[in-house]
Specification:
14 strands; globular; Urease, subunit C, domain 1; 8-stranded parallel β-sheet; TIM Barrel; alpha/beta; binds zinc ion; 6-stranded mixed β-sheet
């Protein structure tokens, strides 16, 4: 998809306006013809069908007006590594190359690339992000651009000293439009006591906690306690003793559940390898989920079972991971990929993954994700022609093709 080719991103106008379009997607199940969206004070006040005709109405054209898309899982800070890492040669090689290339690039280069990439997100229709930052270098990038969402400082190993003093904690802050929260990297890379300490902190602040889970074979094997594999030795070589971690005979999802990590304010990312019992746990705990199918395909040659998640009434969001494992950070592209690879998933379900599920996954469903009253007046206009509501859904979900 060419960024910005037929997209107009309308940033929350503070004064009262009525935006009219040929079609308005209020939510993935409600497509309205010739409709006006009344906004004031940065919020949607009401939806009017048919659209009023007075001179104050801003007529955007015959296309589609909708909520901006949500990229619920991205690593902008790895943008400089685009096309620099081996894909399709195994996850271990990719990770090793990532660490090497990231160090070689250096902070100024990583920051510049993150800045440039973040600045292009709205041109691709993305208004809300869940950014994962291991190095901590992208918070300013997002703040400066006025991007909405959650910036997650990601923790690995057992480095609890990074948590700092409760009063002096710089990273945990709930605010609009951008909150600052914490993420654990994964069950096999972040110490259990650090995970629970971080989760306690984000819960107290009313924020979502994010973690990659059930992604790679090495993670599955280590948490299951499968002998060999070398992960214990690798961690020890990095100075991390995993001998007291409560792993063995369980899945990553069950492991996190046993630690008390799973609830409706935890965002599990990937879920590539899950059992029926895992699905039960995720459903019972109302854990939020985010899937990154294009990245999964590139790194693992495997795709998440979206139909099984939807069948349990789990409502996955979409993310892209980074440009180190995915061609673009566009969610129109991710939707188009899902459409092509999962023909059995309904179009409203796909659009929900890209919008309301993403907003909910970041704990921001009250403010973003649909064009309901009191939601953000950030709007997305697509200059496309459609004949019927069904045609609108066809064209919007295939827009990235
Ligand atoms: Zn990731």
């Amino acid at each position: 998809m060419t960024p910005g080719s037929d997209i107009r991103f309308i940033t929350e106008p503070s004064r009262s306006r009525v935006f009219r379009a040929g079609w308005v997607i209020k939510d993935p199940w409600t497509v309205l013809e010739n409709t006006g969206v009344v906004v004031a004070g940065g919020q949607i006040k009401k939806i009017v069908t048919p659209a009023p005709k007075d001179a104050s109405v801003v007529d955007l054209g015959p296309g589609v007006l909708m909520a901006p898309l949500v990229n619920a899982h991205v690593h902008l800070e790895l943008s400089a590594l685009k096309n620099r890492l081996p894909l399709g040669q195994g996850f271990a090689l990719w990770v090793a190359a990532l660490l090497r290339e990231r160090d070689a690039a250096g902070t100024p280069t990583l920051k510049t690339a993150a800045q440039k990439t973040a600045a292009s997100l709205q041109d691709m229709g993305v208004g809300l992000v869940g950014e994962i930052s291991t190095l901590g270098i992208t918070s300013q990038v997002l703040s400066t651009l006025g991007l909405a969402g959650v910036w997650f400082k990601e923790f690995l190993g057992d480095e609890e000293e990074y948590l700092g003093d409760e009063e002096q904690d710089l990273y945990i802050k709930k605010q609009v439009p951008l909150s600052f929260s914490a993420a654990g990297h994964a069950p096999h890379t972040t110490a259990p006591q650090l995970l629970t300490a971080l989760k306690k902190r984000t819960s107290a602040a009313g924020l979502v906690f994010s973690i990659h889970v059930a992604e790679s074979d090495v993670e599955i094997d280590f948490i299951a306690g499968t002998p060999g594999g070398g992960w214990t030795d690798f961690m020890m070589s990095r100075g991390i003793d995993t001998s007291a971690w409560p792993v063995g005979n369980k899945t990553p999802v069950a492991y996190l559940h046993d630690l008390g990590m799973l609830d409706n304010a935890t965002l599990g990312v990937h879920l590539l390898q899950v059992t029926d019992r895992d699905l039960d746990i995720l459903a019972q705990t109302e854990t939020k989920l985010c899937l990154c199918p294009r990245s999964n395909q590139n790194l693992h040659g495997r795709l998440p079972d979206i139909a099984s998640l939807l069948a349990r009434n789990l409502k996955p969001a979409l993310g892209t991971d980074s440009l180190a494992s995915c061609d673009s950070l566009g969610i129109f592209d991710e939707m188009a990929f899902v459409r092509q690879l999962y023909p059995q998933i309904s179009l409203p379900d796909i659009l929900a993954m890209a919008t309301i599920n993403g907003a909910n996954a970041l704990g921001l469903g009250q403010h973003w994700g649909t064009l309901d009253t009191e939601r953000s007046a950030q709007l997305l206009y697509l200059d496309i022609k459609a004949r019927t509501p069904a045609d609108v859904m066809e064209k919007v979900t295939a827009y990235g093709i």
